[in-house]
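Take just one protein record:
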Amino acid sequence: MATSKVVLIGINSLSYGEFMICKPKTLLYLLGNSFRGVVENNPPKDAISSWLSIFSLNRTNNNESINKLDDLPLIKLVNPILINIPISNPTYGRVNIKLDQSISYQEEIDTVMNEIMENQENGPIISGITALERIDDKSCEIYNAIDKMLLNVIRNVDEFIIFSPYGMKKGKINEPYGVYLSSRPRPNEHDTVKLWEIGQIFVDIVKGDNVQDDF
């Protein structure tokens, strides 16, 4: 039987190194008590092509924003509820914010969390958070706000994937390695997680394939 409450949360620029400095409690707990891995995005793609690789279940170098995802494989397979997905500007889905500093990190995080909580009974959810990428300063404040959101969400779902498509921005490019924390193991415990593999894991969870009893 397919799991009733499943959420995939992508947090652009979430970095293992940075959250070890900021020490957010929920992320540190998940680091030690869930399946973890390193997302490889090398050479680092931008947000649009990174997220499209997930929705396409395949590598893609397309960096043009799109306003319709219905024809992409993941959407066809599981018809997820989309919230604040950074494949366009403003973001795509049930929450739309501009990819600048006009919206505070707290407003984005609270709005996304509320939308997730309101829809968790209605189908699988895919959501994005852009605060770490949009706002250059207040890094640990943003990590702590994200951490509180994750605690509220994770305690109310059956299975989850938390990931970042890449790490912090260094100069003009992003770190090519991101975060993977999940109730499901990565496909190969001796290898990095590829973006399209995240999409496939999500599909498997929703369809009830390879059910994981515990993490």
User: Anything to note?
Assistant: Residues 33 and 215 are 7 Å apart (CA to CA). The two ends are 18 Å apart (CA to CA).
